[in-house]
UniProtKB/TrEMBL annotation:
EC assignment: 3.6.1.-
Start and end residues of each Large helicase-related protein winged-helix domain: 2-33
MF terms in GO: helicase activity; hydrolase activity
InterPro entries for the chain: WH2_Lhr
Protein species of origin: Escherichia coli
Protein name as catalogued: ATP-dependent helicase
Keyword terms of this UniProt record: ATP-binding, Helicase, Hydrolase, Nucleotide-binding
Tree of life domain: Bacteria
Amino acid sequence: MISGQERLACMDDAARLRDALGVRLPESLPEIYLHRVSYPLRDLFLRYLRLMLWSRLNNWLMSLVSVLPLSKSNFSNCANRGW
């Protein structure tokens, strides 16, 4: 639980969540996911930042592609020319 709410998280982040936010981990979690990390809060922040930036960039690019009058052949021509 984080701030009184149940959350789902990747098992790879279990130790980071425990060390950075004090999340209580399930006892059934394998030992390999319980190792200490050097900078847990920084690691969580950077992972979140990458995810959010990629998601927003992807949404922006999809909206841009839908507005521009380019076909798939135009994209492949640009790619072949190294643009």
